[in-house]
Amino acid sequence: MSDTILVRRPTAAPAGEVRAPVFDLDRPIAGVHVGIRTDKAWRSWRLIAQVWDEYLRRDGAATTLVETGGMVGQTGANDRKHIDELADTVECAIVGLGTCGSCTTFTIKDSVVVEAKQKPVVAIVTEEFEVHGHNVATHLGHGDLKVLVLPYPLEARPEAELRAIADEFYPRVLELLGAAS
Amino acid sequence: MTVFTAEQVEVGADPREQYERAIAERWSDGAPLLPATDDAIEALLAATPYPADHALCVLPPVNGVATVELIAINAAMAGVEPAAFPVVIAALEAISEPEWNAFGLTTTTSSVCPMLLVNGPGRDELGIDYRAGCMGGAAGRGSMTIGRAVALCIRNIGGQRAGETTKTVFGQPGRFGFCIGEWEERSPWPSLAERRGYSAQQDVVTVHGGKGTYPLADIHNDDARDLLYLIAKSVAFPLSNMYLGNVQNGEVVVAINPMWAERFGAVFPDVEELQGFLRANAWQPIELWPEPNQKILRDKGRVDADGRVHLVGRPDQIVPIVCGGLGSLHAIALPSFGESQMQSHPVLRPGSA
Fold first, then answer.
1. Parent domain of B241
2. Whole-prediction pTM
3. How high is the ipTM of this complex?
4. Are residues B224 and B253 in the same domain?
5. pLDDT along chain A (181 residues), means of 10
């Protein structure tokens, strides 16, 4: 009797060999139409996005906000349609928030919609979900997607702390979008 | 003879060596596996109308391509018998429907997993449990191997790894595999598959994005309506995932034992009326939640004019099935992830495609 047998390997290769290009604004933020994707689930992100929206308009940008709240059903279909329309309309986008498993997945998916239209985009995730965000982007063929990592957790922080985080990371958002200073 | 594309690997003939190798190669869920030899894989492939190289679906999180060959390899490791292999295929077809939201469910922090609910005449022959102990302990070969094969496909083809590609906080026992049947012969209502448009002669798999087994028990209620009212109240627990998202998404499965089903069927011979009654009572008063939560639920439009926070928006989102032993006294809810819609797929055998 042989000491060995032959079996077949049960695993598949992960997707992600292709890395789609990323894009920069290469001009000042003033006059740029910026899309912001918020999420009904995360009050912290809604506040930070609101602060960034104010700063963007202060700095001469125009903004359009889309708030998502569904993954499936009519709400999910509406959300994906609105993201697609946003990606068509704006010149760049800020998409968040990845601070749970599935919401990070959908943050990255919606970011990829913008990047697939050859526009600058930054996905916003929290520290705990940074690796997951990069993994999802890679498996969608967008492994170089720009990801901004915020502190974790964001939920249950006082408003003053969230505003301080918004202030601290606003310049980094502009940098990742490739806005010239 | 099939020309396989998966790499052939030499392993020790000793089962203990195979077990060690499977763990080292990360093919295993931690429990022993059978060797996926070419003979075993061939036997499974002969039981499906699909060719081995057919790309059935793409499985997240890593978006691996699930060819029928790879699925058969994983099914062989789980010990699936050839006649049951088409059930594994059907389950994966259901899982890969976009509205099941596999991309979200395989990556979430939640404890959700695919829960396979099987209807049709093949349940007994395949060893799919639907009587006493059907959710654990009955040890039907079909239930144990089909559920595990699907879980292995998600692990080995989809690349789902706790702490790496899925952010699940706790996981759950159902991620080892969950597959039960419905005791259709003891149900006063059309089977789940029939209600979803299939005939009673078809074998059908319905996949529910479930969060585990939530037990309910009663010895006090003689009136069927009273008991159903309490079941409705029990599934509407305040920290349910269903209160986090959209009221129109997701389903709660309520597994009812045959004795209770008989009582409920006498009062509600029409299953839609039963579902309407359950939906109408599956709510909690807004005052149940702390003040900050109340604001969030109001902002999300979840509070009706009477201050009720309904668990679901429609009666069909509460899904009764009949299974379990004749000892009565218990029901099991399978709560939903919420952002997932149950999907069904017929079991296709050679010649039926």
1. 214-334
2. 0.96
3. 0.93
4. yes
5. 91 91 97 97 96 98 96 95 98 97 96 98 97 95 97 95 98 96 77
